[in-house]
Amino acid sequence: MASNELFRKTLIQVRELLKHNKISPEDLLTVCQHRMRETSALNYFTNAVEKHDPLINSKIDLPLKGIPFSVKDNFYTEDMPTTCASLMLENHIPEFNATVVEKLHAYGGSMMGKDNMDEFAMGSGGCESQFGPVRNPWNYSELEVEGNDDFYVAGGSSGGSAAAVAAGATFFSIGSDTGGSVRVPAAFCGVVGLKPTYGALSRHGLVPLCNSLDVPGIFTRSVADSAFVFNILKGRDVNDPTTIKQQIPNSRVKPEEDVKGMVIGIPKEHYIDGTHPDIRAAWDKAIQQFSDGGATVIEVSLPNQEYVQPCYRVLCCSDVASNMAKFDGVEFGHRAREGDFTEELYTVSRDYGFNEKVKRRITAGNFFLLEENYERFFGKALSLRRMIRGDYANVFGANSAAPSSGTPPCDVLLTPTTSVTSPLHSRFTTMSDLGDGHEEDHHDLAGMPEMDYHVTGINIAGVPAISVPVGLSKNQYGHDMPIGLHLVAWEQQENKLFRAAKFLEQESNFQTWAENN
Predict the structure, then answer these.
(1) Entry pTM
(2) For this structure, is 72 an active site residue?
(3) What are phi and psi of 201, to 5 degrees?
(4) Strands of 480-488's sheet, edge to edge?
(5) pLDDT at 511
(6) Which of 9, 65, 70, 72 is catalytic?
(7) From 86, 110, 129, 157, active-site residue
(8) Which of 73, 376, 397, 423 has the fewest CB atoms within 10 Å of its CB?
(9) Is 176 annotated as catalytic?
(10) Share of the chain above pLDDT 90, in %
(11) Which one of 181, 251, 318, 467 is the catalytic residue?
């Protein structure tokens, strides 16, 4: 099989080819290495793997034998740098693997590299890395031909993970999702992005951003691929006490799914100004497809949606201040040569090691946690968190104490993933705090409403969600950019999530189109 056909295949498809000896693990490795060289300008890796697992050549039959994958550079990898794309950890080599990395190796996967990211997972565009920004594969060559050195952003903070899958350098990748950091890049890069239930996947070996919100996520080219990797990675881990103790059932995706009898909720608060007309049209079309497919579509309300961003801002920055405290140049992290006494050494080391975004979030978090501010900010954020989670419990019928609303409980919710398609980097720097004159912009402390409004509440509620590419939008520059739609289910209901996502995927036919283009 020609390499230009193989790298477009899904994980499930290449497993079948391997099973019937039509290709070998070495073929997959060669194809992905070739793609890495061809697309190196996209800057999706911080480090590439040179020596590959000997299991590739073994006779042991493993579910992922020889299948290339990558992991975000905030997951520990034994004997390989884990930098979080920061100068603070530029020489940090862990002594053990993160649990998800260990499982992927044990099942025969072949790691290609560590994925570029926003520093310490703080960013919306994949542009806040000490290794330089990640470039979205979509229309990158067209912009080069036009003589334009601009590029579309991959999304953040797991932009490198999304770009690696979209570019064909790996068949799946692992990112982390704290407030949309898997689903937003997935939508921007035209791939599937899964954020599982909090506690379904182990966080052991994941450098934390916000402990109570962080979730390892999965990037793939299809919904079936996503379910397959999820089944491998889910489960209790004695090294992570936040993992779910009871057994999580395997998720199965049929070749064709139907949604007869399902209840699809459309949250009215997600109809917001600024949503691109093509994204709104794709959402409306999907609503009609679910209805035509036999699902019951109802409007629901998430009344505390307006408080999601301020709640996230306080919770995230407070955890950042706590988690970054250990990086002082003495106990952990980069140590400056300057500094005649301890406090000066701390200051110089942290000033060099952290970028401006990280430093501002640390400052904000320390402010929120001051004794005189604690109840005013952090205490209120915790109360809001309970209210936001309660909204989701109500629409999914999981709140037995709530009065009956007269509407049936939802199986899944459907919204856009983002309100915009991927912007050009030059445009992104004027939308965010990355440009001069934007230092006081509050987006720095959370995300960007155009990108994060639909996705952040999911992390606060702890429920699973998935972004599925469903079509293209031609932007003002004449470039086609992918559109992602967002499905949400109640905790540990990934089966329902995959069922609805597969239906959406087959109705849109985006994955088949991507294979041929």
Answers:
(1) 0.95
(2) yes
(3) -115, 145
(4) 45-48, 110-115, 68-72, 172-177, 215-220, 192-195, 465-474, 480-488, 412-416, 263-267, 296-300
(5) 75
(6) 72
(7) 157
(8) 376
(9) no
(10) 82
(11) 181
